[in-house]
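Bump. Still looking for DUF2155 domain-containing protein structure tokens.
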Amino acid sequence: MKIAWLGLVLSLCAGAGAAQEVASVGVGAVLRGLDKINGQARDIDLSNGEANEFGRLTVELAQCRYPEGNPAGDAYAFMTIRETASGRELFSGWMLASSPALNALEHPRYDVWVLRCKI
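Sorry for the wait, here they are.
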């Protein structure tokens, strides 16, 4: 499933145009977290391989990529999101900045999505 998802992500990015054929790896990513109960949103600034807590979640960024020659272009990041207390994995996979609902965290209280890569 993860390999098929990665293939889809890479084909979407590669099909965006000749100038965006190769993905570059950023040094990290800026994510946004939303607490749906109190309506508060917070940006989460992570480096590759780093984890940070957001509410009752631990968000870990493995890698952020963006189209070559277009660092402001569509970012996609591989993240793992767990419940902090239990360590139970809630999400693991690639998330696209332009289509966060395509592969989203499903949680009754929190939303987390990618804004952009850090270069």
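Residues 2-118 form one domain.

Edit: fixed formatting.
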